[in-house]
Write a structure and sequence with these properties.
Elements lengths: L4 E8 L3 H12 L2 E5 L2 E6 L1 H14 L5 E6 L25
Antiparallel strand pairs: 1-3, 1-4, 2-3
Helix pairs in contact: 1-2
Length: 93
């Protein structure tokens, strides 16, 4: 079975065209998120492809951050939030 890790990916992009492209790119990998912050369960290969596509997309004045979350601590979801889980399959567009 392929191993996936939970990442948080965020961007701050000044140009509206690049912003839409970045949103579309990240949404293809995301299992949840809001506006410019996404939860993504990624394999090592998917992470490399996402980084390569974002690097080609963003300009020097833009920002992109991807952080792998430590899987050891308990996940606490408050309010209407649903704790992320690694489902048995994903659809990647």
């Amino acid at each position: 079975m392929v191993s996936r890790s939970l990442y948080i990916a965020a961007y701050d992009i000044s140009n509206s065209r690049r912003l839409r492209q970045a949103h579309r790119e990240l949404k293809a990998y995301a299992c949840g998120g809001q506006k410019s912050l996404f939860e993504c369960f990624l394999t090592a290969g998917e992470r490399r492809r996402l980084l390569a596509s974002m690097q080609a997309l963003i300009a020097p004045e833009d920002r992109f951050l991807i952080v792998r979350l430590d899987p050891r601590p308990e996940i606490i979801a408050l309010g209407r939030a649903i704790a992320p889980s690694d489902p048995p399959f994903f659809y990647v567009e």
